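Notebook entry, structure prediction.
Reason for the run: the old model in the group folder had no record of what sequence produced it. Starting over properly, with the input documented here first.
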Amino acid sequence: MAQLQTISTCSSTNLLFNVSKRVKTPLSKNSLCCSKKLSVHQEHGVKSSGINRNGVVRCSASLTQESITNQVTEAPNGKGLRGKLNKVVLAYSGGLDTSVIVPWLKENYGCEVVCFTADVGQGVMELEGLEAKAKASGASQLVVRDLSEEFVRDFVFPCLRAGAIYERKYLLGTSMARPVIAKAMVDVAKEVGADAVSHGCTGKGNDQVRFELTFFALNPELVVVAPWREWDLKGREDAIEYAKKHKIPVPVTKKSIYSRDRNLWHLSHEGDILEDPAKEPRKDMYMMSVDPEDAPDQPEYVKIGIVSGIPVSVNGKELSPASLLSKLNEIGGQHGIGRIDMVENRLVGMKSRGVYETPGGTILYSAVRELETLTLDRESMQLKDMNALKYAELVYAGRWFDPLRESLDAFMEKISEKTTGSVTLKLYKGSVSVTGRESPYSLYREDISSFENGDIYNQADAAGFIRLYGLPMRVRAMLEKGI
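New structure, fully documented this time:
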C-alpha cells in the first residue's frame, strides 16, 4: 500500500447522499453487517494481481442509499445544520469548488474534514501549495498519494488492451481516473477513521456516478456527501461569494473560462465557447499538443514494443507504465497528435461538447490495434470489437468494479495472449500512420498470401468455395427469374 503524506488541504471530487432531516438514529458501526470474507477487501479497497485483477466487495446486508443516509441525518447532539458526521474524506483539488466544500461540510455536518489529493499525473503545478489552501479552508490535514503508476498499469492499460473507446472517439481519460481516485479514498477513510466521503461533482455530470459506484462497491458503509446536490449555491459565482463570506481564498475569479481535467492520459476542455458545438476551439486553448500546422515539417518514427496487448517499450527501451506514457505524450504532443473534438452523450442523459488532448494514448491505441491485425483471426477480432463497445460503456458509466467489466477484462486478457510484437508508426502534423508491424505469433504467411501458387493454397480451390458460399444468393436470383 502506498505511503501517505499528511499535508494540509485536499484535492477534490465530491460525493454525496441526499440527507433527509427526519430520522434521528445516528449511524453506528454495528448498524451495517458485511460478510467476514470481505474483511481483506475492506481493508485494502481492492485486491489486484497482474494487470487488472480487482476484487469486488459484496455486502451481505441489504443496503440502500436511503437506509444509510437516514441513519446519519439529524444525529443526537449534532453540531451541523443538516446533521452530524464524525470525519469526512474529501476529494480535493484546491480549486474553487472543493475549497468551498471544506467549510460547508463543517458548517452543515459539524465534522472534521480530511482532504485527499491523488497524483494521477496532472502536473506539479496543480499540486503546489495545496497544504496551505486546505488549511486556510478549514481542513485538518491533506493526504497526498501518488497513484500514477497504478493508474496507468491497472486502469489505463487494461482499457487499451480491450480497445475501449466511447462513442467512436473518447479514449476515456477522466472515466478511468475516477475509480482509482475513489478506491484510494476508501483506503484513506479507513486509515483515518472517517465515516463519510465527499466529492465536488455537480448533479449534471458523469463523475458523481463514477465516484459513488466505486464507494458502493468497496465500502457500502461509508456515507457519501455531494454538496452540489444539496446546497443552495446555483453556480460558480455563488460559490465565489460563499468563499468571500467565509474568508476562504479562492484561485479563480468570475472571468475563469474553461473547465479542465488533466491526468497522465489526457487533458479535457469544456465550457466557454465550447458550449456552442458550431464554434471552433481557440488555438491558445490547447496545452498538451502543438497545433498540427505548427508541428515539425519532418515526420518522426516511433517503435512501440507490446507484450500480450500491453505496451512495454518505446524505441527499444523498456519503461514503466507511467514513464512510457509520459514519453509518448511528449513525442506525440510535439507533432500535434491526439486532438479530439466531440459531442458526447453523458450518462445522465444530456449531450455535452468537449475537446480532448490524448497524444500518447492515441499513439498507443494505433499500435495495439495494428498489431492485432497480425495476431487475431477474423472471428476473434470481430468478437473483441463488439465486447470493446460494452467495455467502454461500463467504464464510462463508472462501473469499473462491476463483475461484468471484470469478466470482460478476463476475456480481453485471454484473447490478447498472443498480441506480442512491435509496431512502427510515423508521426506527422497531427496524423499517426503505420509503417511496419511484426510479431512472433503473426498469422500472416507470405508463402500463403503471395499471388504465386503454393502447396498450402491452390487457387483452383477457390472456384468450389465461391459456388458454395454464394449458393443462397444464386438460389434467390433463380427464384426471382423463374428458373
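Summary: Residues 67 and 145 are 32 Å apart (CA to CA).
The old model has been moved to the deprecated folder.
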